[in-house]
Specification:
Strand content: 15-25%
CATH superfamily of the largest domain: Glycosidases
CATH architecture of the largest domain: Alpha-Beta Barrel
GO cellular component, one term: lysosome
Strand order of the largest sheet: 4-5-6-7-8-9-10-11
Shape: globular
CATH class of the largest domain: Alpha Beta
CATH topology of the largest domain: TIM Barrel
Number of strands: 26
Family: Belongs to the glycosyl hydrolase 35 family.
Number of domains: 2
GO biological process, one term: keratan sulfate proteoglycan catabolic process
Protein name: Beta-galactosidase
Distance between the termini: 43 Å
Structural class: alpha/beta
Subcellular location: Lysosome
Number of helices: 13
Oligomer: single chain
Radius of gyration: 25 Å
Length: 576
């Protein structure tokens, strides 16, 4: 395909003065571009969140991004993913940030780092640890002394890691974002942003390119930008590219044009239709952005999965499902899409696409139905899953006070509910140790097939089942999807791993992605389900089913409480 000469070459004179051999990355305000080792540089990047993808698949996803023609990736660092309790840090396994960064470098991808402390990302509490709320009057994302003290301590752990992987230190990180879309937050605390700027500089040095990201409107940039930190904008397909970058020019009269979040898709909510952004709209706007010589990050290039309890929510309260597929270029499971190849075609008009073999979509396997049996209700299991025993109180304490998450009194109609007996639960640990199955007498259930979902609600109850994958079949185990015929709402664990929430009675997500590394061919695979509302087991077929086809766009049953849709690009809450 014929290469297109963009304004990038016109605005960035290729004859730059020689620089020293030491790696460098900077902003050239005279030529309105980035300089990489003294040469004009434009990044075409894609977002990938390592926290939403199993470590075993990081290389596969990064290779696919590289083979699409990207020269950089962008990623968030969720604070609560690495510091679940104060002072206890976890950078192992799927949380091994340094391994992820090293993979990026080995593959040939630069990194745009977004360390927060707040990240949004439709991630639980926007990445902020819930234990911050133990101080009831704390003002998050502000110069509140208690919040700042916690941020300083966390950044004292994180920023030295980032420093080691900066481009000028031989690593892949070329730019580092400060906070995230702060211009959309009510506080507008310049002292907070100044503190973060000084904090980042103290650990990362004066040479690193720090940047902010805000909506493409002057109003957002007013509180989101700060002198000394390069201001960028974000906007999606169908936006007026000229007007959007004019907003950036209001804050940055000179320097490179940057869209830090160009939306290839959009997020989903339980009870709302699956969001789809047409490929034609994406490639049209992407071409317009590249035509004017701008730098761009495609958000998301691959969305991944909100395993466990990590899915966030928007305001007014609209929770995200377990899937973070995002209608992105690569599916939740890393599969290639028509959108992927269309974007690759546009990129090829502006830069060379790497030669080599494009990794294929991973195979999927339908393991079929698995019979489930009732274990115990949650109430009957309290001796196994409660970590602190009962607490009697007039009104319920917050989840944070119980090392869990409720923040208000509960009402029935207009009446406050009082005289509570409260238990703090650690279900994950009980499931991982097999305590529920070991202590339970399996309760037989009817084998008749249900003709309709159960209509009567029942107490939250645990169910268990198991299945064997034959070890004589080549290439097993493979990725799969689990679905819950006629189940209502709950949580599922496979071999002790918390796969996430299911809610097929609400939709649009019906199946949950199960990566192959969770499964075994040498021992039986155990499934634990916590059904919160009603299972089909008392009146019909008590099974879950593994299929090779995802369903994330099913008919939905909505409460009508959440009114926003994919066109409402600036509707996201400041605290997820």
């Amino acid at each position: 395909m014929r290469k297109v000469r963009s304004d990038f070459h016109e605005s960035c004179d290729m004859s730059c003065e020689d620089y020293a051999a030491t790696p460098s990355f900077s902003i050239d305000y005279r030529q309105n571009c980035f300089l990489k080792d003294g040469e004009p540089f434009r990044y075409i990047s894609g977002s990938i969140h390592y926290s939403r993808i199993p470590r075993v698949y990081w290389k596969d996803r990064l290779l696919k991004m590289y083979m699409a023609g990207l020269n950089a990736i962008q990623t968030y660092v969720p604070w609560n993913f690495h510091e679940p309790v104060p002072g206890q840090y976890d950078f192992s396994g799927d949380r091994d940030l340094e391994h992820f960064l090293q993979l990026c470098q080995d593959i040939g991808l630069l990194v745009i780092m977004r360390p927060g402390p707040y990240i949004c990302a439709e991630w639980d509490m926007g990445g902020l640890p819930s234990w911050l709320l133990r101080k009831k009057d704390i003002v998050l994302r502000s110069s509140d002394p208690d919040y700042i003290a916690a941020v300083d301590k966390w950044m004292g752990k994180l920023l030295p890691i980032i420093n080691h992987y900066l481009y000028q230190n031989g690593g892949p990180i070329i730019t580092v974002q400060v906070e995230n879309e702060y211009g959309s937050y009510f506080a507008c605390d310049y002292n907070y942003m100044r503190h973060l700027s000084q904090l980042f500089r103290s650990y990362l040095g004066e040479e690193v390119v720090l940047f902010t990201t805000d909506g493409a409107g002057v109003g957002y940039l007013k509180c989101g930008s700060l002198q000394g930190i390069y201001a960028t904008v974000d906007f999606g397909p169908g936006s007026n590219v000229t007007a959007a970058f004019a907003a950036q020019r209001h804050a940055e009269p000179r320097g490179p044009l940057v869209n830090s979040e160009f939306y290839t898709g959009w997020l989903d909510h339980w009870g709302k239709k699956h969001s789809v952004i047409p490929t034609a709209a994406v490639v049209k706007s992407l071409n317009e952005i590249l035509q004017v010589g701008a730098n761009v990050n495609l958000y998301m290039f691959i969305g991944g999965t909100n395993f466990g309890y990590w899915n966030g929510a928007n305001s007014p309260y609209g929770p995200q499902p377990t899937s973070y597929d995002y209608d992105a270029s690569l599916t939740e499971a890393g599969d290639l899409t028509k959108k992927y190849f269309a974007i690759r075609e546009v990129i090829s008009m502006y830069k060379e696409i790497p030669e080599g073999i494009l990794p294929p979509s991973t195979p999927k396997f339908a393991y079929g139905q698995v019979q489930m049996k009732k274990l115990k209700t949650v109430s009957e299991s309290l001796d196994l899953i409660s970590v602190s025993g009962p607490v009697k109180t007039l009104y319920p304490p917050t989840f944070t006070e119980m090392n869990q998450g409720l923040v208000f009194n509960l009402t029935l109609g207009a009446d406050f509910l009082s005289n509570w007996t409260v238990y703090s639960l650690n279900i994950d640990e009980a499931v991982q140790q097999g305590l529920l199955s070991a202590s339970s007498r399996f309760i037989s259930t009817s084998s008749r097939f249900a003709t309709s979902p159960p209509t009567v609600l029942s107490p939250p109850t645990f169910y268990a089942g198991s299945f064997i994958i034959p070890n004589g079949i080549p290439d097993l185990p493979q990725d799969t999807y689990i679905q819950f015929p006629n189940w209502r709402k709950g949580q599922v664990w496979i071999n002790g791993f918390n796969v996430g929430r299911y809610w097929p009675s609400r939709g649009p997500q019906v199946t949950l992605f199960v990566p192959a590394h969770l499964l075994s061919t040498s021992v039986q695979n155990n499934i634990t389900v916590l059904e919160l509302e009603a299972s089909p087991c008392s009146s019909g077929s008590c099974t879950v089913e593994f299929t090779d086809t995802p369903i994330i766009n099913a008919t939905v049953k909505s409460t009508g409480l959440y009114k926003r849709g994919p066109a409402d690009f600036w509707s996201r809450t400041i605290l997820d």
